[in-house]
Amino acid sequence: MILLTRKAEFSSSHYYWSDQLSPEENVRLFGKCANRNGHGHNYTLEVTVEGEVDPVSGFVVDLKELKEVIHREVVDVYDHRHLNLEVPEFKHVIPTTENLAIAIWKRLENQIEGAKLHRIRIYEKPDLFSDYYGEA
User: Fold this and answer.
1) Structural domains for the chain
2) How far is CA 16 from the centre of its chain?
3) Least C-beta-crowded within 10 Å: which of 3, 13, 103, 135?
4) Under 8 Å between Cβ of 40 and 12
5) Which tens digit of pLDDT belongs to each residue from 49-81?
């Protein structure tokens, strides 16, 4: 079995808020992230697939096709979007990084021909201004 990883990047905004909590509890739990105006992040996504090498093509999966699937199912949907307001899976789910990884897994799980989804990794890129203005 071979593992292959493809990276992609996107930028999104969001806020953390649970309707099950009072406004005070939301602020206590989520701090600045409870601001309903939202804030943004630049994300790096790594999608790892696994499979056997095809003896004819030499591929587990054509990386160009994997890139196209990632862009169609994730980047084109999430990039420059307010996750809470514009992406259906976050209408009633808090768009934490963990929930983002779960949603991406569901979007990609059966979309990659010839390979099995193995891992989703998401990194929030550091904010260049956090040293000057405090953590977001």
Assistant:
1) 2-133 (3.30.479.10)
2) 15
3) 135
4) yes
5) 999 999 999 999 999 999 999 999 999 999 999
- pTM for the complete prediction? 0.89
CB of 47 within 8 A of CB of 8? yes
C-beta separation of 87 from 75 below 8 A:
no
Active site (catalytic) residues: 33, 80, 124
- In the chain, the amino acid numbered 107 is R
Q: Per-residue b/e over 31-54, b at no fewer than 16 CB within 10 Å? A: eebbeeebeebebebebebebeee
Q: Which residues contact 107 (CB under 8 A, 6 or more apart)?
A: 73, 74, 77
